[in-house]
C-alpha cells in the first residue's frame, strides 16, 4: 500500500485506461467456481464499458486501481431494475469502507438512470459481500438454490457444478449473442 492510500482513495468513473487493472484484480479476488454459471473475463468487463452506462466506478490510489464496481442499468428481463454485478477491493485495502463508497456511487448512478430498484446476488458463503450489502441499504429478497443432479449417480452433487463453462465468454442472458430475443 502506498503512503497516499492512507489519506485519499478517489472514486472515479471507470475508463478504458483502467481495464487491465480491473481485469487483473477480478482474477485475483473472484472465485467464480461458487457460481459456475458466471465467468470473469475480458468480455465481462468490456461489455460494461461498451454499454455506456455510468454505473461503473473504480477506487484509485493515485493511478492504481484498488477497487471497482460494475453495474448495469437492466437486470435480466427487468428494465426497471439496475444490477450491481461485480464488486471487488484489493485485499490490501479491504476493511476501510472503500466497497461501501463504490456501492453508493453505483446505486446513485443506477437510480439517476431510472432504476426503481438495484439488485445484487450474493453467494451464500460470501459473508463479506453479504455484510457489505446489508450495511449499505440492501435487504435479502429472494433466495434461489441451485439444485444439481449429476449424470454420475455416485458423484457428490457439489462436484458436478465445478466444471468449466462450455461458453466461458457468454454471460447468461445479458450478452448479445446468446440468441435470446430482446
Ligand atoms: C466484499 C468486498 C468487496 C468488501 O470490500 P471492503 O472494502 O473490505 O468492504 P468495506 O470496508 O466497505 O466494508 C463494508 C462492511 O462489510 C463488512 N465486512 C467487510 N469484510 C468482511 C468480512 N470478511 N466478513 C464480515 N464482514 C465484512 C465491514 O465490516 C463493513 O461493515 P461495517 O460497516 O459494519 O463495519 C471485499 O471483501 C472483496 O473484494 N471480496 C472479494 C470479491 C467478492 O467476493 N465480491 C463480491 C461478489 S461480486
From TrEMBL:
CDD domains tied to this protein: NAT_SF (cd04301)
Signal sequence extent: none
Protein name stated in the entry: N-acetyltransferase domain-containing protein
Highest taxon, organism lineage: Bacteria
Single GO MF annotation: acyltransferase activity, transferring groups other than amino-acyl groups
SUPFAM superfamilies found in the cross-reference section: Acyl-CoA N-acyltransferases (Nat)
Gene3D superfamilies per the UniProt record, alphabetical: 3.40.630.30
Disordered, as annotated region: 153-182
Keyword annotations from UniProtKB, A to Z: Acyltransferase, Transferase
Organism from which the protein derives: Catellatospora methionotrophica
Domain spans labelled N-acetyltransferase: 9-168
Amino acid at each position: 500500500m502506498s503512503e497516499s492510500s492512507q489519506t485519499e482513495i478517489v472514486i472515479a468513473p471507470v475508463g478504458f485506461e483502467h481495464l487491465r487493472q480491473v481485469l487483473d484484480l477480478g482474477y485475483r479476488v473472484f472465485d467464480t467456481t461458487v457460481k459456475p454459471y458466471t465467468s470473469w473475463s475480458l468480455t465481462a468487463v468490456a461489455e460494461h464499458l461498451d454499454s455506456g452506462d455510468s454505473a461503473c466506478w473504480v477506487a484509485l490510489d493515485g493511478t492504481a486501481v484498488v477497487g471497482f464496481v460494475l453495474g448495469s442499468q437492466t437486470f435480466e428481463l427487468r428494465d426497471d431494475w439496475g444490477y450491481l454485478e461485480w464488486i471487488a477491493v484489493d485485499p490490501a485495502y479491504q476493511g476501510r469502507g472503500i466497497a461501501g463508497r463504490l456501492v453508493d456511487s453505483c446505486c446513485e448512478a443506477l437510480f439517476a438512470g431510472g432504476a426503481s430498484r438495484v439488485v445484487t446476488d450474493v453467494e451464500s458463503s460470501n459473508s463479506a459481500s453479504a455484510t457489505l450489502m446489508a450495511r449499505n441499504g440492501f435487504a435479502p429478497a429472494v433466495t434461489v438454490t441451485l439444485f444439481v443432479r449429476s449424470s454420475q449417480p455416485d458423484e457428490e452433487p457439489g462436484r458436478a457444478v465445478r466444471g468449466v463453462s462450455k461458453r466461458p465468454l457468454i454471460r447468461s442472458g445479458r450478452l448479445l449473442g446468446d440468441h435470446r430475443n430482446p
